[in-house]
Amino acid sequence: MKIAISGAGGLVGTAFRMRYPQHEYLAISRSPSSRDGLKTVSWDIREGTIDAEALEGLDAVVHLAGESIVALRWTDAKKKAIRDSRVLGTRLLVETLQKLKDPPKVLISSSAIGYYGTTEGSTASEESPAGEGFLSDVCVEWEKELAPLANTGIRVLTLRIGLVLARKGGAFPLMLPAFKMALGGVLGSGKQMMSWITIGDLVRSIDFLLNTSALSGPFNAVAPNAVNNREFTKALGQALKRPTLVPVPAALIRLGLGEMGESLLLGDTHVAPKALSEAGFTFEHADIDSAFGHLLGKEA
Predict the structure, then answer these.
(1) CA dist., res. 218 & res. 230, Å (int)
(2) 7-26 burial, b if ≥16 CB within 10 A, otherwise e?
(3) Which residues pair with 24 in a beta bridge?
(4) What is the pLDDT of residue 298?
(5) Between the N and C ends of the chain, which has fewer C-beta atoms within 10 Å?
(6) What residues form DSSP beta bridges with 159?
(7) What confidence tier does 33 reach under pLDDT thresholds 50, 70, 90?
(8) For the chain, what is the HEC assignment?
(9) Which residues are CB-neighbours of 25 under 8 A, at least 6 positions away?
(10) d(CA 24, CA 9)
(11) Please, what is the average pLDDT of the chain?
């Protein structure tokens, strides 16, 4: 397949290309040349420009680009960057695909489980309504930008991604030093649910959706067995054979990280991969112990 990827050099884009090297890839990027030597489709979302001709004749587009939501605090400037990178980038891509003479057959666009806001004891599926709060508002705006493709013949899928666990990027490597030094502990009450997925299962789900022509619409990219923060902390400590006795009070998280800490570290988000499971996708790492065993190289 000939696939253009925005965010091709990021955690997910890189992992996908490494796992499926048989495809021909183009990187949709502001840089004139890719770090990995990929052919580049240039774009500038602020200027609203893109090399449309380079997108002619593709089999697929995988849209992963977006400003990181992790920061010391969500300032107004950071919030704007998070929103604009997703909404304006998706708008530019959609407007361009609509005008192509030979458009791709399928577009997979990332979103996030932040769409559902705080689930507060319930479990969200793809049929659940959007929640409230900054991340939910961004995800709703982000996904609405895909609507103009509804009658173009392009198959559109939205991937609502949970906490991605990977050896070489994302949150997991940042957690390890504290846990290895026996300084890891429960965040807040520890009751908040964490909906996660390993990077391997995430890129496998992208491949599955690309190659299953009957599928479209939203898909929750999370493992089927969410855990609460206390369970997550205990499982990681056991995998590393380290105690987890240093809790972090919720008040301290709110004081230090504000709205970001409240949303990302203390928010209860229990999400199920109903659509993926019903479509026949199988997870290599469906439970947290299996995931940590894989990430730490301790699988049997």
Answers:
(1) 29
(2) bbbbbbbbbbbeebeeeebb
(3) 2
(4) 67
(5) C
(6) 110, 219
(7) low
(8) CEEEEECCCCHHHHHHHHHCCCCEEEEEECCCCCCCCCEEEEEECCCCEECHHHHCCCCEEEECCCCCCCCCCCCHHHHHHHHHHHHHHHHHHHHHHHHCCCCCCEEEEEEEHHHHCCCCCCCECCCCCCCCCHHHHHHHHHHHCCHHHCCCCCEEEEEEECEEECCCCECHHHHHHHHHCCCCCCECCCCCEECEEEHHHHHHHHHHHHHCCCCCEEEEECCCCCEEHHHHHHHHHHHHCCCCCCCECHHHHHHHHHHHHHHHHHCCCCECCHHHHHHCCCCCCCCHHHHHHHHCCCCC
(9) 3, 4, 5, 8, 17, 38, 39
(10) 15
(11) 95
Express each pLDDT in 139-187 by its tens digit.
999 999 999 999 899 999 999 999 999 999 999 999 999 999 999 999 9
Level-2 CATH architecture, domain 2-295: 3-Layer(aba) Sandwich (3.40)
Residue with tokens 């909906």: 195
pLDDT-derived band at 300 (thresholds 50, 70, 90) equals: very low
pLDDT digits (tens, 9 = 90+) for 190-248: 999 999 999 999 999 999 999 999 999 999 999 999 999 999 999 999 999 999 999 99
Q: How many angstroms separate the CA atoms of 97 and 95, rounded?
A: 6
119: left (phi over 0), alpha (psi -120 to 50) or beta: alpha
- For residue 205, how many other CB atoms are within 10 A of its CB? 24
